[in-house]
Design a protein that fits this description.
single chain, mainly beta, Jelly Rolls, 4-stranded antiparallel beta sheet, 8 strands
Length: 126
C-alpha cells in the first residue's frame, strides 16, 4: 500500500473535550471525505494516523474497491486512545496501486457529539 498524506487535523479538533489532567484519554470522531480515484483498479483505505508517547497509531475510517474512474464517499466513526503528548494527527489515503491517482473534493473531521462547525471542514476542492 502507498500512503498519501491528505491533511493535518488541527489540534482544536482532536483536543476538544480532553479531560483535564488525564494522561490517557479516548475520543471518537466522525470522519468523511469525497474521494475520486482514477488510473488503476484496487483498494483504497481512508485512515487517521497519529503519534503519541505510546508510539504510532492508525485508525481505519473506511475502505473500498475501485474498478475504474470513480468517486466514493468514504466515512466512518473512529475511536482514538491518546497517551501523553500527541503529535501529527493526520488523514492519510492508502492506495493499493502506484498508478492510482486521487482527488479529494471535501474532507471533514468532527468530534462525536459536537456540533458540526465550518472549521471542521479540512479540505474543500483540494
Amino acid at each position: 500500500m502507498i500512503d498519501k498524506h491528505i491533511a493535518d487535523v488541527p489540534k482544536r479538533i482532536w483536543e476538544e473535550g480532553r479531560p483535564p489532567k488525564l494522561r490517557i484519554w479516548d475520543a471518537e470522531f466522525n470522519v468523511a471525505g469525497w474521494i475520486k480515484v482514477s488510473g488503476a483498479q484496487g483498494e483504497v483505505v481512508l485512515q487517521v494516523s497519529y503519534e503519541d508517547e505510546a508510539g504510532e497509531h492508525a485508525c481505519v475510517v473506511d475502505r473500498c474497491q475501485v474498478t475504474g474512474d470513480s468517486s466514493s464517499l468514504m466515512s466512518g466513526l473512529i475511536r482514538m486512545r491518546f497517551t501523553g503528548s500527541v503529535e501529527n494527527v493526520r488523514v492519510v489515503l492508502r492506495l493499493s496501486e502506484p498508478a492510482m491517482r486521487f482527488h479529494v473534493d471535501e474532507l471533514f473531521v468532527q468530534r462525536r457529539g459536537s456540533t458540526l462547525r465550518r472549521e471542521d471542514k479540512l479540505i474543500s476542492n483540494y
